[in-house]
Amino acid sequence: MSSSLVAFKNQNYAELKRDCIQRRKLFEDPEFPANDSSVFYEEKPFGIVEWKRPGEISSDPRLFVEGINSHDLNQGDVGNCWFVAASSCLALKPHLWKKVIPDWEEQDWDPKHPENYAGIFHFRFWVFGQWTDVVVDDRLPTFNGRLIYCHSNSHNEFWSALLEKAYAKLYGCYESLRTGQTGDAVVDFSGAVCETIDLEKEAFCKDQGKQKNLFAKLLEVHKRGGIISCFIKANQDEFEFKLANGLVKGHAYAVTGVNAVRLGHGVSNNVQNESIPMVRMRNPWGKKEWNGPWSDSSEEWANIGDTERDKLGLIVEDDGEFWMSFEDWCTHFTDADVCHIVDSSLTCIQKAWNEALKFGSWTKHDDPVLNRSGGSNRHKTFLQNPQYLFDVKKETDEVLITLQQKDQRIHKKAGHGKNVFIGFRVLKVELNREKRMCRLRSKKQTGIKLFSDARSVFLRCNLPRGRYIIIPSTFDPGEEGEFMLRIFTELDSGCRCEVA
């Protein structure tokens, strides 16, 4: 993962702040002005938007009030529950949010030295393989004196609103955040590897063995600092439709806890040592909770002792956070994004990974030798796509592969912004191969990632020792675009740039 830092729009936070303090002027960002162009490109919000600085909204503005936690955020009017869910998860991970919000103590208001406040903040996002520093001024869109978009439960806390503004600037405007994937935002916050699990297709609700294995996996991801979110599929006319059980279709939820909860108080002795797999969820709306078993005031909590309740931090109020049994979670949710924080440092206590990070592009050319946009293997031009060699050096190694196309969201204002369908194939080849493959015959296919128009696709597989070629492609030949390929192995894979 690249550690270099890129200044978005070539704006240097330290220089801009220094200049504002010297001139005794509050920063006004020319790259993201306080006007309608920063709010929308198509659908104008209701009412007249008035831009206000935090000091005009609160007499005692703060970046954080009593620290940072997942209860700080509530979704506003932009319909970006996916972003707010990711931000709620971010708030639970100090090692992550301190990177996204750098120098947070220095950035905060200092009542003792108001002369040092310049109305400027900066946030960092992992954009297509590079950490990117985004500068914003503190003017926020309001309507009738209240923040229109993401806001905190505390009237004088502004970290979430400013973070959202920086993210909106990165992608063009607030309206560009109307739809998205929670996993994509988490990757932008962390450089994580996102694995999407189709709970419905895999039928976890019907298989206790698969449920047990999945819970163990999510518990491990959570312990290692990973981030998990989920949602219920919805048709176009079902988005944000509330079900009788309190859950909302087409709506992203943050998983804020994964625990095996011990039973023991208020039930017979034969369950003293039993435990039930459970997950804690948060609705970005800050309200509307699950009302089934293990909801806030359900009778099931009578089976839990006070010590266990305290350990779980159980809060009985309509704050958008609630518990569910893992069985119910598998039954009612259809998809989950599991974001692995992959550590490649030698000091990592758990498994350390070797990462091969390669950038490439699909480019079309009339000459088959030069063409690099061959489409899927349904087309005879498939092998004209970029090809990458890598080695598995252990007897058997767990390999993680993720292919990400360059995010098109930034082009929405120009009337574009749609992803193409992408996927890849992994093929086992001869140990001495150094050249491109020209034929598919007799080559052993190891892994296929079906095509998706998501920003990224992921594959986890166990591969035996040997040499492999991975072929990333678009579904249709002739489509162009940039991509980033990441391959994680326990031992260095020696991944080569595209072979000739």
UniProtKB/TrEMBL annotation:
GO terms for biological process: proteolysis. GO terms for cellular component: cytoplasm. Keywords: Hydrolase, Protease, Thiol protease. One of its GO terms (molecular function) is calcium-dependent cysteine-type endopeptidase activity. The active site is at residues 81, 251, 283. Pfam families: Calpain_III (PF01067), Peptidase_C2 (PF00648). It comes from the Eukaryota. The keyword NADP does not apply. The keyword Protease applies. Residues 26-342 form the Calpain catalytic domain. Belongs to the peptidase C2 family. This is Calpain-5. It comes from Oryzias melastigma. The lineage of its organism: Eukaryota, Metazoa, Chordata, Craniata, Vertebrata.
